[in-house]
Amino acid sequence: MIPVRHCLKLVPLCSQIRHGSRMFPQLKRGSFNRITDEDVNRFTGIVGETGIKTEELDHYNTDWLNTVSGFTELVISPKSVEEVAAVLRHCNERRLAVVPQGGNTGLVGGSNPVFDEIVLSLERLNNISHIDPYAGIVECEAGVILQNLSDKVGEHGYTVPLDLGARGSCFIGGNLATHAGGLRVVRYGQLRGSVLGMRVVLPDGQILDGRSNMRKDNTGYDIKQLFIGSEGTLGVITDVSLLLPQSPVSVNMALLGCDSFDDVIKCYRLSRQCLGEIVSACEFMDSLCMTSVNDILGLASPLENSHKFYYLVETSGMNMDHDMEKLETCIEKVFESGCATDGVMAASKDQARHMMSLRENIAPALKAVGFNYKYDVSLPIQHMYSLVEQVKHVLRDVPGSKVGAYGHVAEGDVHFNPITPQFDPLALSLIEPFVYEEVSRLKGSISAEHGMGLKKANYLRYSKDPSMIAMMRSLKDVFDPNGIMNPYKLLPWND
Amino acid sequence: MIPVRHCLKLVPLCSQIRHGSRMFPQLKRGSFNRITDEDVNRFTGIVGETGIKTEELDHYNTDWLNTVSGFTELVISPKSVEEVAAVLRHCNERRLAVVPQGGNTGLVGGSNPVFDEIVLSLERLNNISHIDPYAGIVECEAGVILQNLSDKVGEHGYTVPLDLGARGSCFIGGNLATHAGGLRVVRYGQLRGSVLGMRVVLPDGQILDGRSNMRKDNTGYDIKQLFIGSEGTLGVITDVSLLLPQSPVSVNMALLGCDSFDDVIKCYRLSRQCLGEIVSACEFMDSLCMTSVNDILGLASPLENSHKFYYLVETSGMNMDHDMEKLETCIEKVFESGCATDGVMAASKDQARHMMSLRENIAPALKAVGFNYKYDVSLPIQHMYSLVEQVKHVLRDVPGSKVGAYGHVAEGDVHFNPITPQFDPLALSLIEPFVYEEVSRLKGSISAEHGMGLKKANYLRYSKDPSMIAMMRSLKDVFDPNGIMNPYKLLPWND
To answer: Are B86 and B45 within one domain?
Structure first.
């Protein structure tokens, strides 16, 4: 077994770092003040010496993909909500720009500085305050690593309604700030549906206290929802309460080989019909993804033959016999209908883990193939792969170009990575804005789960009506009138 | 069988109407203009004669409970989003106050006028625009009646992830504006999690177009979430896209008799353990509720004996054999543990419907017992009934007083109705603010699912921190600077 994505932070596979400001040469630094010694002294007075870093900041300056980097000279790591408030209050008074940072595992350059913004790291706010074993609710601080949270609530028979490859590094606060998607949306719904309460610090240092453990609470506007997915541009999430599903008693998995994406869709539909409430993941990958994972990372496919597409379905339920019977019936129907020509069910937890690791290691495997132009779009299911075919077509004359695609079938969320041997501006100009125009034409989303960050901010108009963008700006002005919170991110800066 | 709540609109059981302004004598009409003939002409020009009503307006002026009434002289029913926009633009320019109104089935006086506000009825915006049978998504207008929506998507094998007693009258737009709860939250989560897109008209006539059918879409702030639960105070929801769960193949139900609320909790926990993913309702009622439904409405209990409490559990799944086996195992464990002393499983759809009708007819049955002071609070599950006991205690010397309680166990949502023979100001002074203070002390919600409306607006501080209330006011000012949208509702007006 090869470690999954969460370890890759330590060993970047690709070193094509481009400074945010170089990636977008037309992007100018905002009219923020520069940090003085007096500011550093002030911050040290708030968080103490151990909460201040001014050296060896590469890890904070550069994104996980090693594609965007800023040049902050100051990282502040508060230990309490009051310290976060005091830090932000000073930043706001002094017009110092701030990037809130969780595990820094984002894929759109949203969590690292572009210029010299101060990094406000949540890494020391990592307390799991309380687990209610009866109600299935966890209260914790924003800097808790997802895997740690998952392990801890697992001891009480619960699971976190969110799972993704970066689980070993990402913070729950960052998951909320970016509204992370991942593997379990088909089962537990979008993350925002599981958030019961939240405490947030506003840029002026006000603490917005929306902590609550109530499963139903219709007392006024649900303001926390605005912060979920706001990517640190409105304030800093410091505490959260989450509703937890019970840990499943049985988890089963099957991997099927298909000849076409239409067959993947047929497999998906049969699995929804047969498996109903126990479906917990519906993933696909194309042949380039599978061969890259096999050849580059040495993770063997459990299927004997190669296929154009692979469909992976997971079930999680409370009764092993019932779940196995449902999955077996499903596989039978799949083969009867001819929409898969090959398939295997995991016979043990290890085999299931191995199958899922094939899916989870696609991103690092493709990165080793060449320079990846990353897209994460949602589309009506029938168009998920036709867009990939179109991109292959527009790149047909670019030497050495390839496209690998995979994703979450149930949500129409396709991750596709056009790849060239090196970064190629011509290839990029063929892909963009073509991809965004097509997604817009199909009424899809140009960012299904990764968010806008720096990289996609200027493309917001392809997924949002001008009326919505104007309202987003109005709301940004309400929460952050001085614009110090994560500038250049989420909202377009080129107009 | 007796018709359930949705029919009661036509036959009010109680006629203690109190004008909103009489209920709160200190509430003064806002400085809005009064409607002139010129205004009516202008509105007629926008929506046509058939969209204007100036007579026989009781139904629009009075709430479903017949406890709050205003005295509007004008009801406008637009047929399109453009007409809604033109109407609101004129109201905003002329400073005319507006109440958006759906099915007018709310329980907190939120959907009817308090003084002479114009009623903007969504009743003619009732088109089900599109059902995507593959993706399981419905697009419709706000004025579609929940039951009609449910029937229509049922033809395609889907169900609406929301169900409540008022299904035959309430509109889906009102369900969203009030973030209706109901019976299925334990299974499908809160309604806001199923909303994919929404179009809203702002008070100034701007159309905020957030229509989308994407299951994942992380492109900026999720502004629609602010309108969900805003009770018409920020704008008017005109269109919505909802994600639909598959219709279950098998629905089963059991009713258990318990000697104490602790036993109800034990039954609930066992049912979650044994039934896991197929649980679709976990309801309780106390003896007063059961006897009222039996005696007043003639709906017989299927249990031979009377009990202090009743626990009703419903399952919805894709495999009848599996589901029955799970439910039977559950009931066995319940009896083994001794937490229920009696119980019955529904052997047919009719029996299941009858069991559920016992639960759904509690509200009308209790109303016939006397004057109901209605509360809908959420609490940690272990405190759900102890608060009811406390209220019984404080009312012990009030002649003829009773308290009936029922609700949704999984969400800690208890509906309890103190009852006196007639409205009794002394009783009310014993109950309030006592109930709100207790709920606040227990960190519960003073409105689990009914919302704030007119009746609870001034109690917001018991569930929301001052920082949250201040931010709500700021947001209200952004969306509705002239304050014309549903004044006196949701936000406190007494400070």
So the answer is: yes
